[in-house]
Amino acid sequence: MEKTDRITDRQLTVLIFVSLLSPMIRILPTSAVTLGGRAAWVSPLAVFPVSALLTAGLRALLKNAPEGVGLQDAAMLGLGPVGGRIFGVVSALWLTFYGGFLARSAAERLLSTVYPNGNPPIFVVVTLLAALVTASGLTKTLSRTAEVLMPILLAVIAAVLLSAAPDVTGENLLPVTYRNWEDILCGAVPIFDVTAAFAYFLFLRGHVARTPGKRPNRFPWLTLLLLVAFAVTFFTLGTLGVNLAITMENAFFMVIRNIKVFGVIERAEAVVVAIWIVTDFIFLSAILMIVSEIWRTVTGVRRRAFFTAPSATLSGMSAFLIARDAFEFMKWSDFLVPAINLGITAVIIPAVLAVGKIRKKY
Amino acid sequence: MRKRVPALGLALCLLLSGCSRGLTIFSNYRRLESIELVRTVTVDTAEPGVSVAIYGTAGEKQEARMYEKEGTSIGIAMNELTLMPLGREAILSHTENMLIGSDLAEDRLDEVLDYVERFSEMRLDTGLLVVLDSTARELVSGLAGEETPASDVIAGLSENIDRVGKGYIFSCREIVSSLAQNGVALVQCVRGVKEEKLFEKRGEMNIEPAGFAVMRPDTVVGYLTEEETLGSMLLLGRYRSRNLDVPVENAVLTMSVDLVTPEVKPVFAHDGSLEKVDIRLKLSSNLVSMEGLVDIRREDVREKVEEGLSGIVESAVSAAVRRGQEMGVDFLDLRGILSRREPIKMEDIPEKWEDVFPALPVEIRVESVFSRTYDIIDPPEISGREEGGPWKKLIGSLTDN
Amino acid sequence: MLREKKPPAPPDIAGDAPVTAAAVEAVFDGCYDFESRELHIGGDVGRKVRLCFIDGLVSGSDVAEQVIKPLTDPERFAGVTDVKAVIAMLLGGSVYVYTAKSRTKLGEMAGDLLNGFCALIFDAERTAVTFEVKSQQRRSVEAPKEEKVVKGAKDAFVETMKTNTTLVRRKLRNAHLKIREFNLGERADTAATLVYIEGFTNEGIVAEASRRLSKIKVEGALTSAVIEENIVDNPRSPFPQVISTERSDKFCMNILEGRVGILVDGLPLGFLAPGTFSQFMKVPEDHSSHFLVASTLTLLRYFSVALTLLAPAFYVAVAMYHQEMIPTRLMQSMIEAKQQVPFPTAVEVLMMLLAFEILQEAGIRMPSPIGETVSIIGALIVGQSAVEASVVSPVVVVVIALAGIAGYTMPNQDMGAALRLCRFLLVAAAIALGMFGIALGCAALLYHLASLESFGVPYMTPFAGGEGRHFSRALLRHSMTDKRDRDPELKTGDGGEAKL
Q: How many domains does the structure of chain C reveal?
């Protein structure tokens, strides 16, 4: 690992936030509303304790690991060289596939919103190529890019939601009572799934420089992410209603389709959809970076960038092979990918770290 | 080097796409100069299935034109319409209103809405209207004048219709949402009327509101009268203002009526069943004009005006509720309103809503307040004021002495 | 016809060759302005010394009055026969010049001559005594020409380094202000100085700046690009990474913020490092205006960055791919106007952008009155005629003009030029992929900016790379009641944290 490629805890936090905005908008509000119905807008608030517990738990398990040790190093310490390598290879392969899934989902979103006559391969290829360039670079550069993008993205969300506010009606949001707790919890599952992807970023922990005497910030990204999730679900559901929201594949962008600002700006969905591509691009870059980092640790090769291009190529192949059409892709997107994600982030990774902790390896 | 290869690839992709259609691998490009900007779309039933007409312009100073094609579905007809004269390409992104014939509305509303929802170019807030007494295409061509495009006439109607309390143009989003949530939706109906041309370059016809249609996705349940439409607007929160005539003594007062607060409350019996629905409306009214003479400073006169107005509004709301009950269709979404007010109790009512609703007693109380007469001083014979008034008398008597 | 002829090897003046009159004359052989004459010490014909100087670099009257006159005074050197004693007397003040140096190496002596010294060469001792008698023929201090001042100091840097260091010293009366000298250029041997406040400016930045200055390997440091491209972290980036200014007040303000300054003899500019993006958005007037006005104008500059970068690309994307975003009325008039134009939107925009650049270049290169005429012809005649002749749409002219004018709000022209370059790339991306292209283009641009560092400080600080708590410092100007308003990333010796 290059010694100069260090980031602060805050930068990692921002990188996580910006990256997770991509799946958050893909999943919200459609998945959450499908499961939680009218009560889905309360679900993001219900997710907080569970996500906070997972975040704090994972951090606590790695607390005593020395500086420069990432999740893959920790796994190799905890499970031994063979077990750790198996874990690394499985994670890397899954993340390579997940990268392809992300690229494809970004392309599908562009097609179903602003480029109806477009061609998915061109979007997949261009996004992957751009991500390959950034993933071949330094972690700190990617983190800084995320830092610059974060206020822009938050401003865009705020502007969109404020413009949509006049269309929000109570009829679409109420009534929600304590009897809806099951719906609320069901709606919380996909949101938890997104926040749990935080665990992947522990692979980059080795790049985080520790500042003596400074406690890392634990939950600001989570709080902000869930607030965004709440706002997006609230305004989308309030504007479209349950039934319309679940029939739309990209309900959030559908809300933007109706926005008019003083007759000057109309239908800014092209801008917003395009801006959202940037979050996909950041997440994809981070994923490719993580995959390369895993391979670097597993193989012992010094240069991480050596693995980036092959990983991007494999991701590209999986993006094309994952599904023939939007229907097949929907199967992956609705259940398979979230389920596997949840399994890895909320079960396997904590278990691996717990083993290392029990064996007192860190 | 490791950065140059992907950068080169990116550049290649950029070069391969671009503005030239022959070379592009990305086909969303449209030449601005070849665009026909569609502002109004009409859909009627026709022999193979539907007849779709698009109405728009190819520039600010160019006359609006209408193109029509038939097809088995809206998509097919639209496809045919892209083969327009002079190679123009119609874009539907600026469609403000969609007019459908009453024949089509009878059984194919869902197809129209599905097209709007699915076709990402169209706005979900496109207004949807049902045309009565003629086909939608006939209405639009009748409205079109040399200097007044039909789209402008329809836009004028949609801007002002709720201001005069004659109706409300629901957007496709509102209709889809209502259908999905309630199984039924209200759609504004219009009809064309032949009027004498006010000026030469205007169209032959004018458009006027004709109440709401109560629609299910595949059928029209019924059409509401003007009174029932008014009642529905009041309960659905779509009412802005309307002028109503109230006869009092020897005069007829035209009052501008604003809705202050509508309140819909469920009343439950001891066993938890729904006993009745209590509807209370508060109105504020202002005198707009008076035919004949009546002293409106008299309290009893004002009370009569208030009572008269309350009666008219009560009757409208009552008519709307009754019509819904008769049809067995809760188009006013009373269940939703009541559930939001008493979610737990409403969930616990022993009967099914569909069974309760048709015979549900509804008590309507309307309270109206006569607020002002604007800046008009009443005529002297009513107000009893003389020129100069008491002050002139006082000053006159002082100067005489 | 000229024949290629191998030139004779130049004499070794950099080495340690001893100083003799013949050696000096050999070094400056063929130099029209080199003067050498024999003088008699104390008027004694037997005691000869050779006086050398470069005409123009020295003041003739000073040489005559302060060197020749006392040297040839018989009384002063009466009885002094030993050459060593004469040299000692000269260095001891018998000649009325405030700087006198004894030189035994030819290279050092030649350097002195080139720096406005005259030399007395004692062949017998192989020694020269050099006196500083610089000519005062230099440009006087004037108001800055490129960076206009409305409410502020009007003393701009000139080509003479001493004058510039004096300007800095007068503004920063601090005993810890250090001005370290470096010699740049293997042949031109240009003097440069590194200016910083010892104990306050971050030592790492000072050390890095010293290292980079001493490592410059060029023939001569005669242009600003030579300095900039040799000391910046990423010379391939079009974005400026050191701040250059002709304003001495701006230079001093930045020194006080914890930056290091570089002054180069012969350049009427000062360079400041580290240069960060937000620093290029500021003008010294921000510190002269009310903080609310200054903050608003700073925000306006950021808006202008977005406008100049994105307006043409946005227009292209909207007109070619995303027509649904254009309001109906505007769309109608755009279609109407476009119908008369034979070129596709992409060609129209690229053509106008190119025309704008050509006109600007022509305006800058022409003498002032002609330049203005060219601009007027460009704006009025070409623009209007192009629209009337239906070569371009009026909207395109408006968009390009808007982007161009917004670009002129950049306080730093290097930044403006970099943004113009990126504007072309973004237009190309928009032509190819519409809004998707713009988004990826912007992301690539941000990534590039995020990858830059200037002397160890992230270029995008405080937006990225810092603690993220000082955003407002870049976007707004805080009240001057807080004196310690400085960039925390500069990590100055007094703690550096801006109190915000």
A: 3
- Please state, in angstroms and rounded to a whole number, the distance separating the CA atoms of residues B35 and C323: 10
Spatial separation of the C-alpha atoms in residues B229 and B223, rounded to whole Å: 9
Show the CA angle centred on residue C419, arms to residues C415 and C421, nearest 5°. Answer: 120
Q: Residues C238-269: pLDDT tens digits?
A: 999 999 999 999 999 899 888 999 999 889 99
Determine contact, residues A286/A201, Cβ cutoff 8 Å.
yes
Q: B247-304: per-residue pLDDT in tens?
A: 988 889 888 888 877 889 999 988 888 889 999 999 898 888 888 888 777 888 888 9
Class of domain B225-401: alpha beta
**Structural domain contains residue A46:** yes
DSSP B63: P
The one-letter amino acid code at B148 reads: T
Q: Which residue has the tokens 């779709």?
A: B52
Nearest to A126 by CA among A102, A97, A103, A159: A103
Q: Could you give the CA distance from residue B127 to residue C297 in angstroms, rounded to a whole number?
A: 43
Close Cβ partners of C454 (under 8 Å, ≥ 6 residues apart): C232, C233, C241, C242, C273, C274, C275, C276
CATH number of the domain residue A318 falls in: 1.20.1740.10
C227 touches chain A (CB under 8 A): no
Within-domain flag for C5:
no
Tokens at residue C241, please?
């990474």
Give the domain range for residue C319: 291-458
Instruction: Please say whether the beta carbons of C242 and C275 come within 8 A.
Output: yes
Write the CA distances from B334 to B261, B351, B354, C213, C221, integer angstroms. Answer: 16, 15, 12, 81, 84
Q: How many domains does chain A have?
A: 1
CB C33: neighbour CB atoms within 10 A? 10
In the complex, which subunits touch A with 3 or more CB pairs below 8 angstroms?
Answer: B, C
Return d(Cα C326, Cα C340) in angstroms, integer: 19
Residue B316: exposed, middle, or buried by beta-carbon count in 10 A (0-12, 13-18, 19+)?
A: buried
The verdict on C325 touching A (C-beta cutoff 8 Å) is yes
Cβ neighbours, 10 Å, residue C371: 15
Q: Is the Cβ–Cβ distance between A127 and A281 less than 8 Å?
A: yes
Amino acid found at B24: T
Do C126 and C223 fall into the same domain? no
Nearest Cα residue in chain C from B62: C336
Neighbours of B357 (CB within 10 A): 20
The per-residue pLDDT for range A310-330, each reduced to its tens digit, is: 999 999 999 988 877 777 788
Mean pLDDT of C370-397: 78
Q: How far is CA A76 from CA A205, B237, C451, in A?
A: 14, 64, 32
| Residue ranges covered by each domain of chain B | 31-223, 225-401
Is residue B142 within 8 Å of B192, Cβ to Cβ? Answer: yes
ipTM of the assembly? 0.91
- Interface residues of C toward B, Cβ cutoff 8 Å, are 319-321, 323-324, 328-329, 331-336, 338-339, 341, 344-347, 428-429, 431-434, 437
Contact B25 A241 (CB under 8 A): no
Contacts of C304 by beta carbon, 8 Å cutoff, 6+ apart: C406, C407, C409, C410
The residues pairing with C97 across neighbouring beta strands, listed in sequence order, are none
